[in-house]
Protein backbone atom coordinates (compact mmCIF):
# COMPACT_ATOMS: atom_id res chain seq x y z
CA UNK A 1 0.00 0.00 0.00
CA UNK A 2 1.45 3.37 -0.95
CA UNK A 3 1.22 6.52 1.14
CA UNK A 4 -1.50 7.82 -1.17
CA UNK A 5 -3.60 4.66 -1.06
CA UNK A 6 -5.25 4.31 2.32
CA UNK A 7 -7.62 1.39 2.68
CA UNK A 8 -11.23 2.29 3.44
CA UNK A 9 -12.68 1.33 6.80
CA UNK A 10 -13.35 -2.39 7.10
CA UNK A 11 -11.42 -3.32 3.97
CA UNK A 12 -8.97 -6.19 3.87
CA UNK A 13 -6.43 -4.26 1.83
CA UNK A 14 -3.42 -4.41 4.09
CA UNK A 15 -0.46 -6.77 4.22
CA UNK A 16 -1.15 -7.73 7.84
CA UNK A 17 2.18 -6.44 9.02
CA UNK A 18 4.19 -7.35 5.92
CA UNK A 19 5.31 -4.94 3.23
CA UNK A 20 4.47 -1.26 2.86
CA UNK A 21 1.82 -0.23 5.33
CA UNK A 22 0.03 2.98 6.09
CA UNK A 23 -3.45 2.11 7.31
CA UNK A 24 -3.62 -0.81 9.68
CA UNK A 25 -6.89 -2.70 10.12
CA UNK A 26 -5.78 -6.08 11.46
CA UNK A 27 -7.39 -7.91 8.52
CA UNK A 28 -5.54 -9.95 5.94
CA UNK A 29 -5.47 -8.67 2.35
CA UNK A 30 -6.15 -12.25 1.26
CA UNK A 31 -9.69 -12.47 2.63
CA UNK A 32 -12.16 -13.75 0.06
CA UNK A 33 -15.72 -12.47 -0.44
CA UNK A 34 -17.23 -14.75 2.22
CA UNK A 35 -14.52 -14.15 4.82
CA UNK A 36 -14.59 -10.38 4.36
CA UNK A 37 -18.25 -10.39 5.42
CA UNK A 38 -17.40 -11.57 8.95
CA UNK A 39 -18.59 -8.55 10.95
CA UNK A 40 -16.03 -8.62 13.76
CA UNK A 41 -13.21 -6.11 13.28
CA UNK A 42 -10.05 -6.67 15.34
CA UNK A 43 -9.43 -3.01 16.23
CA UNK A 44 -9.89 0.52 14.84
CA UNK A 45 -7.82 1.50 11.84
CA UNK A 46 -4.59 3.28 12.69
CA UNK A 47 -1.58 4.62 10.85
CA UNK A 48 1.89 3.13 10.63
CA UNK A 49 4.93 4.52 8.78
CA UNK A 50 4.87 3.64 5.09
CA UNK A 51 7.19 0.74 4.36
CA UNK A 52 7.47 -0.30 8.01
CA UNK A 53 8.05 -4.02 8.50
CA UNK A 54 8.23 -6.28 11.55
CA UNK A 55 11.71 -6.60 13.00
CA UNK A 56 13.23 -10.08 12.83
CA UNK A 57 14.68 -11.74 15.92
CA UNK A 58 18.22 -12.85 15.10
CA UNK A 59 18.69 -16.62 14.71
CA UNK A 60 21.24 -16.63 17.52
CA UNK A 61 18.57 -15.19 19.81
CA UNK A 62 15.73 -17.54 18.86
CA UNK A 63 16.06 -20.99 17.21
CA UNK A 64 14.36 -21.75 13.93
CA UNK A 65 14.38 -24.44 11.29
CA UNK A 66 15.21 -23.85 7.63
CA UNK A 67 12.83 -23.43 4.71
CA UNK A 68 14.27 -26.68 3.33
CA UNK A 69 13.01 -28.44 6.46
CA UNK A 70 9.62 -26.79 6.03
CA UNK A 71 9.44 -27.89 2.40
CA UNK A 72 10.35 -31.47 3.32
CA UNK A 73 7.46 -31.60 5.78
CA UNK A 74 4.93 -29.92 3.53
CA UNK A 75 5.80 -32.26 0.67
CA UNK A 76 5.47 -35.35 2.86
CA UNK A 77 2.20 -34.16 4.37
CA UNK A 78 0.66 -33.31 1.00
CA UNK A 79 1.53 -36.73 -0.38
CA UNK A 80 -0.18 -38.37 2.57
CA UNK A 81 -3.23 -36.16 2.05
CA UNK A 82 -3.46 -37.14 -1.60
CA UNK A 83 -3.23 -40.87 -0.84
CA UNK A 84 -5.89 -40.48 1.86
CA UNK A 85 -8.21 -38.48 -0.38
CA UNK A 86 -8.09 -35.47 1.96
CA UNK A 87 -8.52 -32.04 0.34
CA UNK A 88 -7.31 -29.84 3.20
CA UNK A 89 -6.53 -29.92 6.90
CA UNK A 90 -7.90 -28.03 9.87
CA UNK A 91 -5.36 -28.09 12.69
CA UNK A 92 -6.73 -27.37 16.16
CA UNK A 93 -4.07 -26.43 18.68
CA UNK A 94 -4.45 -26.22 22.44
CA UNK A 95 -2.05 -25.73 25.35
CA UNK A 96 -3.11 -29.02 26.97
CA UNK A 97 -0.56 -31.34 28.53
CA UNK A 98 2.36 -28.93 28.93
CA UNK A 99 1.60 -27.26 25.56
CA UNK A 100 1.98 -30.54 23.66
CA UNK A 101 -1.46 -29.96 22.19
CA UNK A 102 0.30 -27.53 19.82
CA UNK A 103 2.80 -30.10 18.54
CA UNK A 104 1.19 -31.01 15.22
CA UNK A 105 0.35 -27.42 14.39
CA UNK A 106 3.88 -26.28 15.21
CA UNK A 107 5.35 -29.13 13.18
CA UNK A 108 3.44 -27.98 10.11
CA UNK A 109 3.45 -24.17 10.39
CA UNK A 110 6.45 -23.32 12.55
CA UNK A 111 4.14 -21.33 14.83
CA UNK A 112 4.09 -22.39 18.47
CA UNK A 113 2.00 -19.58 19.97
CA UNK A 114 -0.32 -20.77 22.73
CA UNK A 115 -3.40 -18.59 22.52
CA UNK A 116 -6.13 -20.35 20.58
CA UNK A 117 -3.98 -21.32 17.61
CA UNK A 118 -5.69 -22.93 14.60
CA UNK A 119 -4.49 -23.45 11.04
CA UNK A 120 -5.64 -24.40 7.56
CA UNK A 121 -3.29 -26.44 5.38
CA UNK A 122 -3.89 -26.89 1.65
CA UNK A 123 -2.63 -29.12 -1.13
CA UNK A 124 -1.54 -26.34 -3.45
CA UNK A 125 -1.50 -23.10 -1.45
CA UNK A 126 0.31 -21.77 1.60
CA UNK A 127 -1.30 -22.35 4.99
CA UNK A 128 -3.24 -19.85 7.07
CA UNK A 129 -2.69 -19.57 10.82
CA UNK A 130 -5.27 -18.09 13.18
CA UNK A 131 -4.00 -17.03 16.57
CA UNK A 132 -4.30 -14.78 19.59
CA UNK A 133 -6.44 -11.77 20.44
CA UNK A 134 -6.47 -8.27 18.89
CA UNK A 135 -4.65 -6.46 21.67
CA UNK A 136 -1.64 -8.78 21.31
CA UNK A 137 -1.41 -8.23 17.54
CA UNK A 138 -0.52 -4.55 17.42
CA UNK A 139 1.36 -3.21 15.63
CA UNK A 140 1.87 -6.68 14.07
CA UNK A 141 1.65 -10.34 15.00
CA UNK A 142 4.74 -11.28 17.02
CA UNK A 143 5.15 -14.60 15.18
CA UNK A 144 6.28 -12.65 12.10
CA UNK A 145 9.45 -11.81 14.03
CA UNK A 146 10.18 -15.39 15.03
CA UNK A 147 9.63 -17.57 11.96
CA UNK A 148 9.43 -17.40 8.17
CA UNK A 149 7.50 -20.59 7.41
CA UNK A 150 4.01 -19.10 7.53
CA UNK A 151 3.33 -15.54 6.38
CA UNK A 152 -0.47 -15.46 6.49
CA UNK A 153 -1.18 -15.17 10.22
CA UNK A 154 -4.57 -13.80 11.21
CA UNK A 155 -6.28 -12.82 14.42
CA UNK A 156 -8.68 -15.62 15.33
CA UNK A 157 -12.27 -14.40 14.94
CA UNK A 158 -14.04 -17.70 15.42
CA UNK A 159 -14.96 -20.78 13.41
CA UNK A 160 -17.35 -18.93 11.08
CA UNK A 161 -14.30 -17.25 9.56
CA UNK A 162 -12.56 -20.60 9.06
CA UNK A 163 -15.68 -21.91 7.33
CA UNK A 164 -15.87 -18.76 5.21
CA UNK A 165 -12.23 -19.17 4.17
CA UNK A 166 -12.88 -22.75 3.09
CA UNK A 167 -16.02 -21.64 1.26
CA UNK A 168 -14.03 -19.00 -0.62
CA UNK A 169 -11.61 -21.72 -1.72
CA UNK A 170 -14.37 -24.13 -2.73
CA UNK A 171 -13.52 -26.58 0.05
CA UNK A 172 -16.52 -26.27 2.35
CA UNK A 173 -18.10 -29.48 1.00
CA UNK A 174 -14.88 -31.47 0.69
CA UNK A 175 -13.19 -34.23 2.69
CA UNK A 176 -11.36 -32.35 5.45
CA UNK A 177 -8.74 -33.82 7.75
CA UNK A 178 -8.97 -32.71 11.38
CA UNK A 179 -5.76 -32.71 13.40
CA UNK A 180 -5.79 -32.44 17.19
CA UNK A 181 -3.47 -33.91 19.80
CA UNK A 182 -2.53 -37.44 20.78
CA UNK A 183 0.40 -39.22 22.39
CA UNK A 184 1.19 -42.65 23.79
CA UNK A 185 -0.51 -41.66 27.03
CA UNK A 186 -3.48 -40.18 25.13
CA UNK A 187 -3.69 -42.54 22.13
CA UNK A 188 -7.06 -41.34 20.88
CA UNK A 189 -7.06 -37.96 19.15
CA UNK A 190 -8.11 -35.29 21.61
CA UNK A 191 -10.18 -32.28 20.57
CA UNK A 192 -12.04 -29.62 22.47
CA UNK A 193 -15.59 -30.85 21.95
CA UNK A 194 -17.02 -27.34 21.62
CA UNK A 195 -14.56 -26.62 18.80
CA UNK A 196 -15.34 -29.85 16.99
CA UNK A 197 -19.08 -29.22 17.28
CA UNK A 198 -18.58 -25.65 16.04
CA UNK A 199 -16.78 -26.96 12.96
CA UNK A 200 -19.57 -29.42 12.24
CA UNK A 201 -22.11 -26.61 12.58
CA UNK A 202 -20.38 -24.17 10.23
CA UNK A 203 -19.35 -26.89 7.74
CA UNK A 204 -22.50 -29.03 7.43
CA UNK A 205 -21.60 -30.25 3.94
CA UNK A 206 -18.04 -31.30 4.73
CA UNK A 207 -16.85 -34.77 5.66
CA UNK A 208 -14.53 -34.44 8.67
CA UNK A 209 -11.99 -37.23 9.23
CA UNK A 210 -9.30 -37.65 11.87
CA UNK A 211 -5.88 -37.12 10.26
CA UNK A 212 -3.66 -36.85 13.32
CA UNK A 213 -2.11 -40.27 12.75
CA UNK A 214 -0.33 -38.97 9.64
CA UNK A 215 1.47 -36.30 11.65
CA UNK A 216 2.40 -38.77 14.39
CA UNK A 217 3.96 -41.05 11.80
CA UNK A 218 5.85 -38.16 10.18
CA UNK A 219 7.25 -37.03 13.53
CA UNK A 220 8.54 -40.51 14.43
CA UNK A 221 11.93 -40.15 12.69
CA UNK A 222 13.72 -36.83 13.15
CA UNK A 223 15.74 -34.97 10.55
CA UNK A 224 19.26 -33.83 11.36
CA UNK A 225 17.93 -30.29 11.80
CA UNK A 226 15.46 -31.50 14.41
CA UNK A 227 18.17 -33.47 16.16
CA UNK A 228 20.32 -30.34 16.15
CA UNK A 229 17.68 -28.54 18.22
CA UNK A 230 17.42 -31.52 20.55
CA UNK A 231 21.20 -31.64 20.90
CA UNK A 232 21.15 -28.05 22.14
CA UNK A 233 18.30 -28.96 24.49
CA UNK A 234 20.49 -31.78 25.80
CA UNK A 235 23.33 -29.37 26.54
CA UNK A 236 20.93 -27.24 28.56
CA UNK A 237 19.65 -30.33 30.40
CA UNK A 238 23.21 -31.21 31.43
CA UNK A 239 23.58 -27.76 32.99
CA UNK A 240 20.29 -28.22 34.82
CA UNK A 241 21.67 -31.40 36.39
CA UNK A 242 24.71 -29.49 37.62
CA UNK A 243 22.44 -26.86 39.17
CA UNK A 244 20.36 -29.58 40.81
CA UNK A 245 23.47 -30.92 42.53
CA UNK A 246 24.74 -27.48 43.54
CA UNK A 247 21.38 -26.49 45.06
CA UNK A 248 20.97 -29.72 47.04
CA UNK A 249 22.11 -28.41 50.42
CA UNK A 250 20.72 -28.97 53.90
CA UNK A 251 18.28 -26.23 54.82
CA UNK A 252 17.48 -25.25 51.23
CA UNK A 253 13.73 -25.52 50.58
CA UNK A 254 12.75 -28.07 47.97
CA UNK A 255 11.00 -25.24 46.13
CA UNK A 256 14.24 -23.26 45.89
CA UNK A 257 16.09 -26.17 44.32
CA UNK A 258 13.18 -26.66 41.92
CA UNK A 259 13.19 -22.97 40.98
CA UNK A 260 16.95 -23.05 40.40
CA UNK A 261 16.49 -25.91 37.94
CA UNK A 262 13.79 -24.05 36.02
CA UNK A 263 15.80 -20.84 35.98
CA UNK A 264 18.81 -22.69 34.57
CA UNK A 265 16.71 -23.82 31.60
CA UNK A 266 15.20 -20.46 30.72
CA UNK A 267 18.38 -18.46 31.34
CA UNK A 268 20.24 -20.65 28.85
CA UNK A 269 17.70 -20.25 26.05
CA UNK A 270 15.17 -23.01 26.66
CA UNK A 271 11.48 -22.21 26.37
CA UNK A 272 9.56 -21.81 29.64
CA UNK A 273 8.31 -25.36 30.13
CA UNK A 274 7.83 -26.40 33.73
CA UNK A 275 7.91 -30.18 33.40
CA UNK A 276 9.84 -31.34 36.44
CA UNK A 277 8.59 -34.44 38.24
CA UNK A 278 10.55 -34.13 41.46
CA UNK A 279 10.53 -35.70 44.91
CA UNK A 280 12.78 -35.48 47.94
CA UNK A 281 12.89 -37.09 51.34
CA UNK A 282 14.96 -39.09 53.82
CA UNK A 283 16.44 -42.41 52.79
CA UNK A 284 16.29 -43.53 56.41
CA UNK A 285 12.87 -43.25 58.02
CA UNK A 286 10.57 -45.45 60.12
CA UNK A 287 9.33 -48.61 58.42
CA UNK A 288 5.80 -47.58 59.31
CA UNK A 289 6.19 -44.41 57.23
CA UNK A 290 6.15 -44.45 53.42
CA UNK A 291 7.84 -41.77 51.31
CA UNK A 292 7.27 -41.12 47.59
CA UNK A 293 10.86 -41.69 46.46
CA UNK A 294 10.48 -44.15 43.56
CA UNK A 295 9.39 -41.53 41.01
CA UNK A 296 8.98 -37.77 41.05
CA UNK A 297 5.64 -36.03 41.50
CA UNK A 298 3.89 -33.41 39.41
CA UNK A 299 2.58 -30.09 40.65
CA UNK A 300 1.36 -29.20 43.23
CA UNK A 301 2.74 -32.22 45.12
CA UNK A 302 6.19 -30.90 44.26
CA UNK A 303 7.78 -28.60 45.03
CA UNK A 304 7.00 -27.88 48.66
CA UNK A 305 8.69 -25.60 51.17
CA UNK A 306 10.11 -28.59 53.06
CA UNK A 307 13.81 -27.90 53.76
CA UNK A 308 16.27 -30.48 52.47
CA UNK A 309 18.21 -32.39 55.09
CA UNK A 310 21.35 -34.49 55.40
CA UNK A 311 20.54 -38.01 54.21
CA UNK A 312 17.83 -36.94 51.76
CA UNK A 313 17.43 -38.42 48.30
CA UNK A 314 16.28 -36.12 45.49
CA UNK A 315 14.97 -37.60 42.26
CA UNK A 316 13.83 -35.72 39.18
CA UNK A 317 12.48 -36.45 35.73
CA UNK A 318 12.49 -33.23 33.74
CA UNK A 319 12.27 -31.94 30.20
CA UNK A 320 14.08 -29.08 28.57
CA UNK A 321 12.35 -27.52 25.59
CA UNK A 322 14.39 -25.88 22.84
CA UNK A 323 12.86 -24.74 19.58
CA UNK A 324 9.75 -26.68 20.60
CA UNK A 325 11.65 -29.97 20.99
CA UNK A 326 11.63 -31.82 24.30
CA UNK A 327 14.70 -33.51 25.75
CA UNK A 328 14.26 -36.00 28.58
CA UNK A 329 16.52 -36.36 31.60
CA UNK A 330 16.35 -38.23 34.91
CA UNK A 331 18.83 -37.97 37.75
CA UNK A 332 19.36 -38.83 41.41
CA UNK A 333 21.08 -36.64 44.02
CA UNK A 334 21.94 -37.64 47.58
CA UNK A 335 22.44 -34.98 50.24
CA UNK A 336 25.51 -36.09 52.14
CA UNK A 337 29.17 -36.99 51.80
CA UNK A 338 28.56 -40.59 50.78
CA UNK A 339 25.90 -42.60 48.99
CA UNK A 340 24.48 -45.42 51.17
CA UNK A 341 25.72 -48.83 50.01
CA UNK A 342 22.31 -50.27 49.14
CA UNK A 343 21.40 -47.12 47.21
CA UNK A 344 24.73 -47.25 45.39
CA UNK A 345 24.00 -50.83 44.31
CA UNK A 346 20.68 -49.74 42.79
CA UNK A 347 22.45 -46.93 40.94
CA UNK A 348 25.16 -49.22 39.59
CA UNK A 349 22.53 -51.50 38.07
CA UNK A 350 20.75 -48.46 36.60
CA UNK A 351 24.00 -47.51 34.84
CA UNK A 352 24.21 -51.04 33.42
CA UNK A 353 20.68 -50.67 32.05
CA UNK A 354 21.60 -47.31 30.53
CA UNK A 355 24.68 -48.74 28.84
CA UNK A 356 22.71 -51.69 27.48
CA UNK A 357 20.12 -49.40 25.93
CA UNK A 358 22.82 -47.25 24.35
CA UNK A 359 24.49 -50.26 22.76
CA UNK A 360 21.20 -51.59 21.39
CA UNK A 361 19.77 -48.37 19.95
CA UNK A 362 20.84 -49.16 16.40
CA UNK A 363 18.89 -49.29 13.14
CA UNK A 364 17.33 -52.71 12.60
CA UNK A 365 17.19 -53.69 16.27
CA UNK A 366 13.64 -54.58 17.28
CA UNK A 367 11.72 -53.05 20.15
CA UNK A 368 11.69 -56.47 21.83
CA UNK A 369 15.46 -56.90 21.53
CA UNK A 370 16.10 -53.45 22.94
CA UNK A 371 13.69 -53.97 25.81
CA UNK A 372 15.12 -57.36 26.77
CA UNK A 373 18.68 -56.02 26.79
CA UNK A 374 17.74 -52.96 28.82
CA UNK A 375 15.88 -54.95 31.48
CA UNK A 376 18.34 -57.82 31.80
CA UNK A 377 20.68 -56.17 34.37
CA UNK A 378 17.79 -55.33 36.70
CA UNK A 379 16.39 -58.85 36.49
CA UNK A 380 19.81 -60.37 37.15
CA UNK A 381 20.27 -58.16 40.22
CA UNK A 382 16.82 -58.97 41.57
CA UNK A 383 15.68 -55.36 41.49
CA UNK A 384 12.16 -54.13 40.90
CA UNK A 385 11.10 -51.04 38.99
CA UNK A 386 8.23 -48.62 38.48
CA UNK A 387 9.32 -47.82 34.91
CA UNK A 388 12.01 -49.57 32.94
CA UNK A 389 12.12 -48.91 29.24
CA UNK A 390 12.11 -45.99 26.84
CA UNK A 391 9.77 -43.49 25.30
CA UNK A 392 10.11 -41.61 22.04
CA UNK A 393 10.74 -37.86 22.32
CA UNK A 394 10.26 -34.85 20.07
CA UNK A 395 7.62 -32.17 20.03
CA UNK A 396 5.62 -34.49 22.30
CA UNK A 397 6.49 -36.82 25.15
CA UNK A 398 5.84 -39.66 24.91
CA UNK A 399 5.74 -40.20 21.16
CA UNK A 400 5.56 -43.55 19.36
CA UNK A 401 7.02 -46.07 20.08
CA UNK A 402 7.06 -46.21 23.88
CA UNK A 403 7.49 -49.11 26.32
CA UNK A 404 7.88 -48.43 30.04
CA UNK A 405 5.59 -51.04 31.68
CA UNK A 406 5.55 -54.80 32.02
CA UNK A 407 3.29 -56.42 29.45
CA UNK A 408 -0.27 -56.57 30.72
CA UNK A 409 0.21 -53.77 33.24
CA UNK A 410 -0.09 -50.01 33.19
CA UNK A 411 -1.28 -48.47 29.92
CA UNK A 412 -1.75 -50.88 27.00
CA UNK A 413 -0.09 -48.48 24.55
CA UNK A 414 3.05 -48.37 26.73
CA UNK A 415 3.54 -52.03 27.70
CA UNK A 416 5.05 -53.27 24.43
CA UNK A 417 1.94 -55.06 23.23
CA UNK A 418 1.93 -55.71 19.46
CA UNK A 419 5.05 -53.64 18.72
CA UNK A 420 7.84 -56.03 19.73
CA UNK A 421 8.86 -56.79 16.14
CA UNK A 422 9.03 -53.16 15.01
CA UNK A 423 12.54 -52.12 14.03
CA UNK A 424 14.34 -48.99 15.15
CA UNK A 425 15.27 -46.47 12.48
CA UNK A 426 18.15 -44.03 12.32
CA UNK A 427 17.00 -40.66 13.65
CA UNK A 428 14.49 -41.98 16.16
CA UNK A 429 14.95 -40.24 19.52
CA UNK A 430 14.25 -41.75 22.93
CA UNK A 431 14.42 -40.90 26.59
CA UNK A 432 15.18 -43.82 28.91
CA UNK A 433 13.05 -44.53 31.96
CA UNK A 434 15.24 -46.37 34.46
CA UNK A 435 13.48 -46.14 37.82
CA UNK A 436 14.75 -48.96 40.04
CA UNK A 437 14.41 -50.00 43.67
CA UNK A 438 15.31 -52.97 45.85
CA UNK A 439 12.18 -54.39 47.54
CA UNK A 440 14.37 -56.46 49.86
CA UNK A 441 15.75 -53.20 51.26
CA UNK A 442 13.18 -50.40 50.99
CA UNK A 443 9.90 -50.44 49.04
CA UNK A 444 9.73 -46.65 48.78
CA UNK A 445 13.30 -45.48 47.97
CA UNK A 446 15.07 -45.89 44.65
CA UNK A 447 17.15 -44.27 41.93
CA UNK A 448 16.15 -42.70 38.63
CA UNK A 449 18.49 -42.37 35.65
CA UNK A 450 18.13 -41.45 32.01
CA UNK A 451 19.73 -39.91 28.99
CA UNK A 452 18.14 -38.81 25.73
CA UNK A 453 19.34 -40.97 22.85
CA UNK A 454 19.37 -40.84 19.06
CA UNK A 455 19.34 -44.14 17.18
CA UNK A 456 22.63 -44.36 15.27
CA UNK A 457 24.76 -46.97 13.54
CA UNK A 458 27.12 -48.39 16.15
CA UNK A 459 24.99 -47.31 19.10
CA UNK A 460 23.04 -44.32 20.31
CA UNK A 461 24.20 -40.72 20.36
CA UNK A 462 23.73 -39.33 23.87
CA UNK A 463 22.24 -35.84 23.92
CA UNK A 464 22.51 -35.05 27.64
CA UNK A 465 25.60 -36.83 28.89
CA UNK A 466 24.01 -37.59 32.25
CA UNK A 467 26.67 -38.16 34.97
CA UNK A 468 27.41 -41.80 35.70
CA UNK A 469 27.66 -41.21 39.44
CA UNK A 470 24.99 -40.19 41.94
CA UNK A 471 25.16 -36.46 42.58
CA UNK A 472 26.30 -35.51 46.06
CA UNK A 473 24.63 -32.44 47.48
CA UNK A 474 26.80 -29.75 49.02
CA UNK A 475 27.12 -28.48 52.56
CA UNK A 476 24.74 -25.94 54.08
Automatic annotation (TrEMBL):
Coiled coil: none annotated. It comes from the Bacteria. Residues 1-22 are annotated as: Disordered. Keywords: Aminopeptidase, Hydrolase, Protease. The keyword Protease applies. The keyword Protease applies. Pfam families: Creatinase_N, Peptidase_M24. GO terms for molecular function: aminopeptidase activity. SUPFAM superfamilies: Creatinase/aminopeptidase, Creatinase/prolidase N-terminal domain. InterPro entries: Creatin/AminoP/Spt16_N, Creatinase/aminopeptidase-like, Creatinase_N, Pept_M24, Peptidase_M24B. PANTHER family: AMINOPEPTIDASE (PTHR46112), XAA-PRO AMINOPEPTIDASE P-RELATED (PTHR46112:SF2). This is Aminopeptidase P family protein.
Amino acid sequence: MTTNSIAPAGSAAEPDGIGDVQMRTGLSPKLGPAAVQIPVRPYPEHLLPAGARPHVVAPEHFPRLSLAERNRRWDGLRKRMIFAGVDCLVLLGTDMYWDMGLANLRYVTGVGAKMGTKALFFLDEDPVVYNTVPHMSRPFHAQHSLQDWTRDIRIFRGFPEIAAELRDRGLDRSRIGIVGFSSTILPASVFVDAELQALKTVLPGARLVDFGHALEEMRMVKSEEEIGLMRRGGEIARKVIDVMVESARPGVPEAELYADMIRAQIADGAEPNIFNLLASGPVEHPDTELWHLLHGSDQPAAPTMRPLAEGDNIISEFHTKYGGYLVHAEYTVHVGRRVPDRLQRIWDVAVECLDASRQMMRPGVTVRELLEALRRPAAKAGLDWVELGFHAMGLVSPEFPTVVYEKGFGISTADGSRIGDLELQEGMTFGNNIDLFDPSWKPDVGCVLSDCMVVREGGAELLVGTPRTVGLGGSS
